[in-house]
Amino acid sequence: MKKFYIGFTIFLLIYGVLMYLYLFQSQQDLPQAYVGGPADPTSFMSVEQLHTATIFSRIKDFLFFIGVPWEWAIYLIILGLGFSTSFYMIANKLSKRSLLVQTSIYVFLLSLLIALLQFPIQYYSYKISREYGISIQPFEQWIWDKGKSFFVDLVLTVPMVWLLYTLIRKSPKKWWFWFWLISIPITILMFFVQPVIIDPIFNDFQTLQDQKLKEDIIAIAKKADIPANQVFQVNMSKKNNGNECLCNRNRV
Questions:
Q1: Is 145 exposed, middle or buried (0-12, 13-18, 19+ CB in 10 A)?
Q2: Cross-strand pairs, 247
Q3: How far apart are the two ends of the chain, measured CA to CA in Å?
Q4: Which sequence ranges are marked TM in the entry (predicted)?
Q5: What is the β-pairing status of strands 244-247 and 231-234?
Q6: DSSP strand E in the chain: where?
Q7: 82-93, pLDDT tens digit by residue?
Q8: What are phi and psi of 45, to 5 degrees?
């Protein structure tokens, strides 16, 4: 097992170096067929803007591609160093009878550790977005959103993990089938719950004031056979340099 962790660490280092060389050292030119056309950034961006956008894009890409194997590494760290077992023992010690309470404690501790280990990359990504003017969200608002996201995920994860363990205990051989079967309506339900309950936790939705734009959007939605009778907008200018709108038939 020790050799595996050493090998995986070496893999991460080599992978990181290769990704850095590919993104920052290799020449990535626009295909000749698009040079001078509307897809050519030089046709609508200055040299300075193009340079800034390129550097920002490469940094974000690097963080993304590094983040994926780092997430794998986090799970290996949790398993290899015995964190998962320790969390289970703590949960079992604090609540010996209630599986739901045990699950809540275990998932909370596990989620907290994962969040802490992922925080450096997430914070650096936020910092880069601030430095390049993509995000204008103050740190305290950003960390508040991260906190809300953590607890929303916790509320959604605990029941599913509790259900999984319950099914494993009740049906050791067919738990996977029953869990899959139950997860189908839950997944469908989330499509309706998210825009109505979860999204408003992070953003303040208001009815679109521009009636002409509202009518145009609803008309386009109807042409696409999307049932909609209301359009909402959310002011993202406090977070990013842009605005978004949401069309949702469930909100009147």
A1: middle
A2: 231
A3: 57
A4: 5-24, 72-91, 103-121, 150-168, 175-193
A5: antiparallel
A6: 205-207, 231-234, 244-247
A7: 999 999 999 999
A8: -130, 145
Q: Which two tokens stand for residue 103?
A: 């699950």
Token representation of residue 37: 């056309």
Q: Collect all residues with Cβ–Cβ distance below 8 Å to 16 and sequence separation of at least 6.
A: 66
Average pLDDT for 173-202: 92
Whose tokens are 């008309």? That residue is 219
Across 72-114, the runs of DSSP E, i.e. the strands, are none
Q: Which two tokens stand for residue 82?
A: 């015995």
Coil/strand/helix, residue 60: helix
Q: Could you tell me if 207 and 237 are in contact, meaning their C-beta atoms sit under 8 angstroms apart? A: no
Q: Beginning with the edge strand found earlier in the chain, give each strand of the sheet holding 205-207 in spatial order.
A: 205-207, 231-234, 244-247
> 132 vs 23, 44, 93, 241, CA distance in Å?
18, 19, 48, 11
Tokens of 164: 């999984």
* Region 149-154 average pLDDT: 95
- E-assigned strands of 16-152? none
Least confident stretch, 29-38, 47-56, 115-124: 29-38
CB distance 205 to 234 below 8 Å? yes
Reduced 3-state DSSP string for 192-239 = HHHHHHHHHHHCCEEECCCHHHHHHHHHHHHHCCCCCCCEEEECCCCC
* Angle subtended by helix axes 99-131 and 83-94, to nearest 10: 130
The overall average pLDDT reported for the chain is 87
Q: Which residues contact 61 (CB under 8 A, 6 or more apart)?
A: 23
* pLDDT band per the 50, 70, 90 thresholds, residue 241: low
Whether residue 134 has pLDDT greater than 90: no
